[in-house]
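Progress against Task 2.4 (sequence-to-structure conversion) is shown through the following example record, which the project officer requested during the mid-term review.
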Amino acid sequence: MSIPNTASDLPDPLAGVTGPRGHMSVDRLKHHAYVADMDDAKTLDAMGLLCPLPVLKARKRLQALESGDELTVLADDPAAIVDVPHFCLESGHHLVSSTVSGTIQTFVIRKK
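Structure tokens generated for the chain above:
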């Protein structure tokens, strides 16, 4: 086995990851919650995201909903148990329910 002399001798780790016009396709590299199917606007899978991302994504998703609509947020960030209720209190949304099953926290938020 020979040791490469220069960086050009190393294999390209991004070979085959470029899209049209040579732009790098980063969607393959993003967290699943960023590129998950967005057809269900009333459910937010924030699993694996850390503070403050679950609340920021919930706020953004709520902006697209009508008043009275409910958003279900799934999170496993330990801080979410405090952050989501605080967000609802500060923004005027109603926290309908908050449940914990193992490490999965489920919040139902009704938009004001």
